[in-house]
Amino acid sequence: MAVVYVNDKPVDIGNDKLNLIQAAERAGVFVPYYCWHPGLSVVASCRMCLVEAGERKPDGTISMQPRVVPGCQTPARDGTVIRTQSERSIHAEHQTLESLLLNHPLDCPVCDKAGECHLQDYSYRFGRATSRMIDDKNQPPNKPHIGEHITLFADRCIMCSRCVRFTREVSGTAELHVINRGHHSEIDIFPGRPVNNKLAGNVVDLCPVGALCSKDFLYKQRVWFLKSEKSVCPDCSTGCSIFVDHNKDIVFRLRPRENPQAQGYFMCDEGRFDYHYINARERIKVPLHKGTATAWEKVIPSLRRELAESAQKDGGRLGAVLSPFLTCEEAYLLAKFVKGLSKEARLFLGWVPVRGADDTYPKDRKGRPIQPVKFTIHAEKCPNRRGVEEILKHFQGEVVYFDRALEAAEAGDLQALYVTGGYPPRLGEWLPAPVVQKVSKAPLLVVQDLFSSEATKAATYVLPSSSFAEKDGCFVNQANLAQAIHWAVRPEHHSRSDGQVFLDLLERRGLLHAEKLRQELSGEVPYFAKLGEGDLGELGVRLG
Amino acid sequence: MAEFEPVLLRRVGKVDSAALSTYRADGGYRALTKALNEMSPAQVVELVKDSGLRGRGGAGFPCGVKWTFLPKDHPGPIYLCVNADESEPCTFNNRILMEDDPHQVLEGILLACYATRASTAYLYLRYEYGRAYRVLQSAIDELYAANLLGKNILGKDFHLDVYLHRGAAAYICGEETGLIESLEGKRGWPRIKPPFPAVEGAFRKPTVVNNIETLACVTHIIDRGSAWFKSIGVPPDPKNPRDAGSYGPKLYCISGHVNKPCCVELPLGVTVRELVEKYGGGVWKGRKAKGCIPGGISMGIMTESEFDTPLDFNGPGRVGCLGLGTAAVTIFDDQTSIVDVLYNICRFFAHESCGQCTPCREGTGWMFKIMERFRRGQGRIEDLQILEEVGKSIGIMPGTTICGLADGAGWPVKNAVAKFRLELEEFIKKGVQSESALPLAMAN
Questions:
Q1: pLDDT at B4
Q2: A440: which of A7, A198, A458, B359 fits an S-S bond (Cβ 3.0–4.6 Å)?
Q3: Tell me, what's the pLDDT at B443?
């Protein structure tokens, strides 16, 4: 058991291997830092985390080191003494911040990062109020073309080298590097080798100042207007924990949320920039019955009646396709509804999109993956196959795949087919014309989807679906980690979330309450037993 | 003091001094034969430790002690990096050793590798030293031909390869971990310590980094014994328990405003005045000296009144300088403006700071900009305080940077502000441009 004294307050850090920044954090003392990042190697070059350190001997005497030390590089041991409020530490903080601001343009009013900029925050908390430099600032040229999604405002850079280390250590692609020397140092790329790797967007999050900006988000919204909702990226079965940053029901960006159980600190660009469909105009907004917009109040009873009639005739000829984009709660409700109409009704797992092979990082110079793997983009481009599969297993003992649904429909074995979609348009038309021909052989075709397609044209009922940012629930990733998603934006005025539609079909009253549903689910399906608490926390719960 | 008989420079200037035959005829490789035949590696280390040889590269760390930091019973390989990246302004002692007596250095390298059980030595040579490169390479070729390098040297179980590596001319690559990074093909950014190079250095293996002159001294210590070495120089100050003494001969480079710039070998502990008057031929044009830089510009500035300070490892520290450094004394006469001196110093460090640590990267740039402004006649009195504050607070000694470059950048500024404050204030008050023309090469 190691005890560390932070500003004379003893803190027990157990047997954890911590640096002084982390040890101080345990004591509730914040030590500012720029270059240090828990997911990257330590360089101790920004010198922002300088503190006074020393050792408390067993006899109670304290011997302090004669110089300030970088907290990120110094390990905390039993008896380590940290002083962040001493004259020397404060002077070092002042000095580093003054140095960083010497050549910083202070263009906060037009800077995208303003509001979440560490240079701003620390200057306010730890810095001097005025600059003593009257000489001209260095003005390195901006580099708007360093990446497809990334732009570099070189004058704002504080040379923490996080981005350089990220491309070397995590993506392994090593596009970014430092050119020139001394106060003329700049971040740059090799000519013709832009930062276009699939993890490139992370350098924007890593950048503690407004130097690296996302072209996607640039000048779209001031960050203080944004509200963040904890969610899960639906774009592959990694299930990266994310923040959905939104304002006035518009999603402006996705950011990774640290989760050691899911993906670590980062997320891939596929997920990061694939959110525009949430606010697309082309979304289906109103339910359609035989091609005519119809009010929910009419659609729901008529749909329920038609499905029930079909089930009464022959339960085995009623089918439902459960998309892997449904949350566990939604899949559960739909399965319950369909199985409630008839025990013989058939449930299928919706189309599981797979693109290539799992993509692991870091890569070597030739693009071959190397060990140890620090980030994986899974080939399976849906968030909840595992969860839906377990629900299917529970309700009908086996998982029947989508192609069997097509076969059955083509053979005319299905009288009614309820198809849920929700696939982002990036995956292409998921029901192409030949497939639609097959499914449309079912006389009663219900399609619940985000966008119009051949399938919606052929469908008797078209119901608007909701994206991950518009619903509550949970996804189970490839490693059986159940993570909660929360609604960030409201669906369009006439739209209802998938879960709400299923609740209405089930004739249950009230609004969807994910935690209560999870309790119900955990009681009924043993695989989900651990969700009994309802609350999944920030990091999720591992199942199975 | 009786005239000192040069040891390290004995063959310099003689005919064919760089050839193996000349070196052998003068008793060359006697020390190596002795060490390989009669001594174990541990005994060599012990002997060097006993001699009190301190590193000649600038910091003056005891050489034998450095060797003992290597992990015991390491399966290898262990590397020796020879620091020949002599880029401290006005320093040229390593150059003379390498160009005129390469075998003396190479014998030291062989001995050091024998003592440390290193299997490969990398000689990191400053790029500008083209002649040294050619001379050293032909000397190495001669050694391979004579089976003094390669496998089973002198028939013993001792193998060594020496590689010459030409750096790309960066001051920072003379810092030992910067050198290692550069040698590995990376950007010359000094590493954070620990781990120290002795534990994890070049290619993540234990590594010793030694200066050329240190290794040349090793040759003579093995040859003549530690008692001989200790008979030269200054013994430790009995009042200072941390003083390891300043033993042995040292090459002093004398340059600047003297009649006869030169490199002389003298026992450690001569005074600046003696160097200037006796060996440098006095200050040029009959003028008086205003001050000097005692050991490369990173060591600070001495005034004329401090010229009686002995140049050993402790002397310069007593008058507020950083240390002995490379013992390259640069004199400036009384008509030199201290503003110009400072401007040049700041320009150098702003140009050579590697840019890794914030205080050094921005501090050196800021000081340079201030000095530039001074020369334009737009200095302010409050700038002196800024200069002093920056000079004092950047560096490894206050703990704000990774390596010692910033100490070297701050020290002369802080010295100048303290010792020449009146002149600086007068210059500011006059508000005129400096008369001397701006140097052609700007630090941009």
A1: 87
A2: A458
A3: 41
State the total domains in chain B. Answer: 3
Domains and CATH numbers, chain A: 2-100 (3.10.20.740), 288-353+383-468+492-523 (3.40.50.740)
What is the value of ipTM here, to two decimals? 0.90
Q: Which of B318, B333, B348 is the last residue of a domain?
A: B333
**Does residue B239 fall inside a structural domain?**
no
Residues B137, B180 within the same domain: yes
Answer with the one of B281, B315, B333 that is the final residue of a domain: B333
pLDDT of residue A98: 93
Q: Which of A141, A146, A153, A147 is nearest to A180 (CA)?
A: A141
Residues B322 and B342 in one domain: no
Residues B257 and B226 both lie in one domain: no
Q: Which amino acid is at B221?
A: I
pLDDT in tens, A427-446: 888 888 888 888 888 889 99
What pLDDT, in 10s, does the model give residues B257-278? Answer: 999 999 999 999 999 999 999 9
Percent of chain A with pLDDT over 90: 73
Same domain assignment for residues B267 and B195 = no
* pLDDT lower than 70: segments of chain A: none
pLDDT value at position A362? 94
Same domain flag for B32 and B133: yes
Residues of chain B below pLDDT 50: 1, 440-444
Could you tell me if B173 and B29 lie in one domain? yes
Q: Which of A158, A206, A524, A467 is nearest to A325 (CA)?
A: A467
| Residue-level pLDDT at B436 | 54
- Type of residue numbered A161: S
Q: Is residue B238 part of a domain?
A: no
- Average pLDDT for chain A: 92
Tokens linked to B402: 């990774």
Q: Three-state SS for A32?
A: coil
Q: List all residues of chain B from 150 to 209 with a beta carbon under 8 Å from chain A.
A: 170, 172, 187, 189, 192
The answer to whether the Cβ–Cβ distance between A102 and B170 falls below 8 Å is no
Cross-chain Cβ contact B366/A68 below 8 Å:
no
Tell whether B444 is within 8 A of chain A (Cβ): yes
With respect to residue B106, please indicate whether it lies within any of the assigned structural domains.
Answer: yes
Which of B172, B192, B355 is the closest to A185 by Cβ?
A: B355
Please give the residue range of the domain that contains residue B311.
250-333
CB contact under 8 A, A48 and B358: yes
Amino acid at the residue A424: P
B358 with A133: Cβ contact below 8 A: no
Q: What is the per-residue pLDDT across A199-243, written as a single tens digit (0 to 9) for each?
A: 999 999 999 999 999 999 999 999 999 999 999 999 999 999 999
pLDDT digits (tens, 9 = 90+) for B374-391: 998 899 999 999 999 999
pTM confidence score: 0.92
Tell me how crowded residue A141 is: count the other CB atoms within 10 A of its CB. Answer: 11
B264 and B295 assigned to the same domain: yes
Name the residue facing A178 among B187, B351, B366 (closest C-beta).
B187
DSSP B100-117: H-HHHHHHHHHHHHHHHT
Q: Which residues contact A418 (CB under 8 A, 6 or more apart)?
A: A307, A319, A320, A321, A334, A338, A446, A448
DSSP state of B90: T
Angle at alpha carbon of residue B19, lines to B13 and B21, rounded to 5° = 115
> Which SS3 state, helix, strand or coil, does residue A535 take?
coil
